[in-house]
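Known limitations

Structure tokens in this collection are predictions and should be treated as such. Users comparing against experimental data should check residue numbering before alignment. To illustrate the layout, the record for 2-polyprenylphenol 6-hydroxylase is reproduced below. The input appears on top and the generated tokens appear beneath it.
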Amino acid sequence: MFSEIRHSIALLRAGRTLAAYDALMTPEQIAQLPWAARLGLSIAKFGTHKPEKGGEMAVAAALSSLGPSYIKLGQFLATRPDLVGPRRAFELKALQDRLPPFPTETAKNIIRENLGSPVDVLFTEFGPPVAAASIAQVHKARSPDGRELAVKVLRPGVGKRFAADLGSFYFAARLMEHFSAEGRRLRPVAAVHMLEQSMKQELDLRMEAAALSEMAQNTAGDPGFRVPKVDWERTSRDVLTTEWIDGTPIADVEALRVQGFDLVKLGDTVIQSFLRHAIRDGFFHADMHQGNLFVDRSGNLVAVDFGIVGRLGPKESMFLAEILYGFITRNYLRVSEVHFEAGYVPRHHDPAVFAQAIRSIGEPIMDRPANQISMARLLTQLFEITAQFDMQTQPQLLLLQKTMVVVEGVARTLNPDLNMWVTAEPVVGGWIKRQLGPAGKLEEAAGSLHQLFTGLPVMLEDAKRATTMLADMAATGGLRLDRETTERLAQAQSRHARWTRFWLALGAISLAAIAIKLIT
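Generated tokens:
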């Protein structure tokens, strides 16, 4: 009860701030409210300081004034137009994650506490902050062996603040789901949970270091893309040290042009790298805005700041690839079938009718000039139309869609004439053909056989237990068919029979698949 009161007070304070910025509703929406509701808004604003910023920047400015948790909430809600509406989502894209830096001496104390040595021992040079955000700030440093380093230090006290505010976010989300059927469809509790998981990773810089390491391993053979190397010796929960990237910001298009870089090729690399990571690896950088992308002297695209990453399971990766390929080939029925096969659209709907709805958004976009075809806009409209067919919100796909909007925007600044489908096809089409072709099927069959052989010891162990139990009972006076004995026998036999049927069927299917592929 006390926590509910505390969360209610926190949300009321936040609402009061939003009201002060005129960020709760547009003037048109306020004008349509009953007089009692308008009076309530006026009361909420009473005594608040009228801020300078308003209009389209009002929401972003209000959330910035509420602190780090609300900045992250706003950035997350920018990916959820289904929750806040397209207009608010667009306004929230202007939200900048920038806060004043904390003192350098504080950062040095945090480094000493985390790494166990003074900054003067760990680094021969340690400069002032070069960037400061809601979670951490970055310093440029130099190691004793002469390497230039980027040292990211977590903002003090930020973890406790996030924990307190997350409780309020969960409280509001549960209320939405309890009182609204539409709220239950949009799954705000799941959205807050996703925000929480993202925050947990950002608040432990070892997780970001691990994400960098994983991405480096995944992309070791990829053309034109790399990430900074992690200095694990100088990394801990609150401190992340990586190589310093001395490159040209990708936002500085003129500087890239003057240096002779191929801007068209760079635009293709941005799109293809992102799709390769999402579809092939199921692991992608979920914050690929211009401030996190550089071009090094060799012309490689270098991505930094892996505090926010996204993951897709095999089902989601195949879902994404087949959807994109279906639109590339205008196979709208296949796009519809993929939704049903993934279990996203209930079976009581007609796939043909759903395909018709998909065609209604695909054809207008596909018939536009190449430089006006937007993959991100297509996915946005697709996710909007699925609501008419009772498709529950898939948070992991919304994060992907949000990232694709950003990535597409970055690529178009480099090449305004970018043809999304031509650029995407080698990655998407190649992956689809591999997964659904002979090589992919043989890999799948090999995996099934591996599961068969690794599962045999479990099956044999079950049989051994059943035999031992029977022998023990015989040695102590024969079989006792009381209720306890029967249940134990049934349980053992059920497991044995279940595993036997499963592995035999799986093995038969796998062997048949291999035989078919070898014959054809």
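For this record: The first helix runs from residue 2 to 20. Residues 247-436 form one domain. Please report discrepancies through the issue tracker.
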